[in-house]
Design goal:
With about 160 residues, the protein is an alpha+beta fold. The protein is built from three helices and eight strands. The chain starts with 17 loop residues before the first helix and ends in a 19-residue tail after the last strand. Helices cover about 20% and strands about 25% of the residues. The protein has a domain of about 110 residues: Beta-clip-like, CATH 2.170.270. A hairpin with a 4-residue loop joins β5 and β6.
């Protein structure tokens, strides 16, 4: 779970508004996204591209907002589009934009099934999705680091049981 308190400045007299806080951080992330992440061939055999850190990323750092086209949750699209959408739980899904770099973060399930076969230790995901509901019909979805990620390391995320 994302730790909002991690970003709280103890010198502030009051907590910032959630929505203002998120939008401020999303803007900072987007300004620096090309200095933070790069897309290149994944270390997971057969996975295609992956996302790699171009600089050290701190634990609990917001990496990027998961953004794209919003559509009603009951709308169904092609199989491929449905695989990579995120249901916000407030009546709509987000189908990621092609320039939303975090859409290319891979899950470790395939890699870990291979590692198990050859006797290697499993690799854990180092990022997570977070969905903050800021109203009855609005939410922000973002990806954040759950541990320190060194420069050059591939980012991994848990897609969840419903994906597999």
């Amino acid at each position: 779970m994302f730790d909002y308190e991690y970003y709280y400045d103890s010198n502030d007299t009051e907590w910032p508004d959630y929505e203002d806080f998120l939008l401020n951080h999303f803007d900072k992330c987007e300004e620096n996204i090309n200095a933070t992440l790069e897309i290149k061939p994944s270390r997971i055999y057969g996975a295609g591209n992956g996302v790699f850190a171009k600089r050290d990323i701190r634990a609990f750092e917001i990496i990027q907002r998961f953004y794209g086209e919003e559509a009603p949750s009951d709308q169904v699209r092609s199989y491929d589009e449905e695989l990579y959408c995120f249901d916000t739980g407030v009546g709509y899904k987000i189908y990621p934009s092609p320039d939303c770099i975090v859409r290319y973060i891979n899950d470790t399930v395939k890699l870990n099934s291979f590692n198990k076969k050859i006797g290697r230790h499993p690799i854990q995901h180092n990022t997570e999705f977070e969905c903050w509901k800021v109203g009855p019909t609005e939410a922000y979805v973002f990806v954040y680091a759950i541990e320190d990620i060194p420069k050059g390391e591939e980012l991994y995320i848990d897609y969840g049981n419903s994906y597999w």
